Amino acid sequence: MKGKLKNIITSVKDKSRVRGYTHRFYTYPAGFSPVFVESAINNLTKKKDLVLDPFMGGGTTIIEALKLDRKVVGIDLNPISAFVTKVKTTKLSKKNIDSIEKWAYEMSEKISFKLENNKFIEDAYSILNWKGLGKREITNLKKVIKGAAFYLINLKEVKNKKEHDFLRLLLLRCLHSTLHDKRPIHEFTVFKSKIRSNSLDMLEGMKSFDPYLYNSRNKVNIYNKCASKTHKTKELKNKKVKLIVTSPPYPGINITYSRWHIHGRRNTTLPYLILGLPMPKHKSIFNFQSPRNKTYDIYFDTLERTFSSIRKISSKKTIVLQLLAFNSEKGLFKKYLQTMEKCGFKEMKMKASGRVWRKVPNRSWQATFVKGDISASNEVLLMHKAI
Ligand SMILES: C[S@@+](CC[C@H](N)C(=O)[O-])C[C@H]1O[C@@H](n2cnc3c(N)ncnc32)[C@H](O)[C@@H]1O
Question: Most buried in the list 114, 141, 212, 344, measured by CB within 10 Å?
Answer without folding.
Answer: 141
